[in-house]
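Hey, quick one: can you model this chain's 3D structure?
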Amino acid sequence: MDARDWNAPDGAARTAWANAARRFEYRLDAWPALTLLLVFSFVAMHVASGIADVQSGRASVLGAAFFVRSDPALRAFGARDLLSVRHDEWWRLVTYGFLHGGTLHLALNGTAMLGLGRLCETVFGRVRTLWLFLVTVIAGGVLSQVGGIRLSEGASGGLFGMLGALAAFGWRGRRRLDPVLRRDFGPGLWPWIGVNLVLGFFFSAYVDNLCHIGGLVSGILVGLMLGNRITDNDQGSRVATWAMGLGSVAILVYGFGGLTVGR
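Sure thing. Here's the predicted structure for all 263 residues.
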């Protein structure tokens, strides 16, 4: 027996399960244009910062290709720098999410984006996925800033935000998702979240776990509000619009209050 037929409830629920599964499979086959654009932007920023390191003499061509970026190059291209943000360079709370400290860092986050971005585009659509990524990047940067982390870069705050939003979608739609999708967006996600958070604590000298936590928590909150294209069939667009507006205001208010601490 197919896993989708196990413990099937009444007819209405079976219909909802079938509709959600059909929408998910249909939308999953679409070209993930936003995801590919984000990964391309990560690569472009990484190449540009590497060229800057080579031109300044801080790295060889081989070093720029395979190893880490220098702090001056990271700052020049938009890393979240504690003192710079305190001096009103707020744009760094966005740009740091497109910049990576080394080729391995880029490869890990780029691979994660290909998977998570595609899923988010499938569930939420491109516009809401972009907003989700940007808001959770900002939230991660704000928490990292308030926590006094000197310098950070990388898309992982937004990636944790995507994980949180997908888990929240699974919880919200648990009665309208069949057992396979319930597992994929529930028990299938939480171990990844837990393992990555634990690794962040173990390697705190190299990982900005405050950024991860800020992205995850904000992603869960956003995911609880956003309409989706699987269980809602895009009927939540009005709710999503209000959620985006209120969420943006909340992020700005929280960010302003947090970033003024320690001025």
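One thing worth noting: Strands lie at 80-81, 151-152.
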